[in-house]
Amino acid sequence: MNIRVLGCSGAIAAGYKTTAFLLDADVLIDAGTGVGDLPLDALAAIDHILLSHSHLDHVLGIPLLADAVLRMRAAAGRPPIQVHALPETLAALRQHIFNGVIWPDFTALPSRDAPVLSLHPFQIGDRVDLGGRFIEVLPAAHTVPAVGFAVDAGAASGHAHWVFTGDTGPNPALWQRLAGLRLSHLVIETAFSDDEAEVAHVSQHLCPADLGHELAQLAGSVDVRITHIKPGEIEAVMQGVQALNSPHRISALQAGQEMAL
C-alpha cells in the first residue's frame, strides 16, 4: 500500500492545499482542496472517501469531485463512490452541502437508483474493510464530532499502522489505543504556534507545547509528520516543534510526499 499526500495545509495559498491523502489509487482519506490536483482519470478511479469530520477544509473536494466524475462513472456502469464518516458528519453533509442550495444532492444524481455518491456511517472503534485493506476509526477531540484513522499495512509488515490523528486537541483516548498498535508513521496536526496557544485550545487544535505532552505518551521512536499548519505559520510552528525534547523523528509533512506501507 502507498499513501500520497495531496494536501496537508490548514488553509489555502499558492502552493498550499488542505487535507487530503490518497491511499493506493482508489481511497481518499479526507477530501480537502488537494483533491483538485488529481487528473480526471485519477478522480474517476476513487471508490471510497473516509472523512475525519465535517469542517470545510476536509470535505469541500467531495461535491466538486462528484460533479467531475458523474458522467464517466455512469457511462462505465461504476457503483457510487462510498463516503464513510460518523453519522453526525454525514448529516452535516446532507444538511449543509448536498441540500440543493449550496450544491445539488449527488446522493440522488444522476438518479436515486444509481447516484454518484452513497453515504455510509461508521463508529469509533470500527475496522472498515476496503477490499482487504483494514482501516480502524480512532477517537479525536475536536469542536465537532471527529475521528482519526489507522491504516493496517497487513501481515507482511507485522501489521504496522499508518496513523492520522485528524484535527484534534489533547486526546488521552487516542494514546490509550495507540499503545496497542505497531506504528510505522504518525501524522499528527499542530495547527498553531505556542504564541497562539489560547486560539489552539479554544478551537481544539494542538500547538507545539501540547504536541510535546501528547507525544510523551507514545513509547519508542516513531516517524512523526506534522500536518495542518497554516500558511505563513510553518517556521513558527516548526521552531516550537524542533525545540521539543522528544525521542521521535519529527518533521513537517509536505504535499506530494509518499509513504509506503
UniProtKB/TrEMBL annotation:
<protein>
    <submittedName>
        <fullName>Ribonuclease BN (tRNA processing enzyme)</fullName>
    </submittedName>
</protein>
<feature type="domain" description="Metallo-beta-lactamase">
    <location>
        <begin position="17"/>
        <end position="205"/>
    </location>
</feature>
<dbReference type="InterPro" id="IPR000396">
    <property type="entry name" value="Pdiesterase2"/>
</dbReference>
<dbReference type="InterPro" id="IPR036866">
    <property type="entry name" value="RibonucZ/Hydroxyglut_hydro"/>
</dbReference>
<dbReference type="InterPro" id="IPR001279">
    <property type="entry name" value="Metallo-B-lactamas"/>
</dbReference>
<dbReference type="Pfam" id="PF12706">
    <property type="entry name" value="Lactamase_B_2"/>
</dbReference>
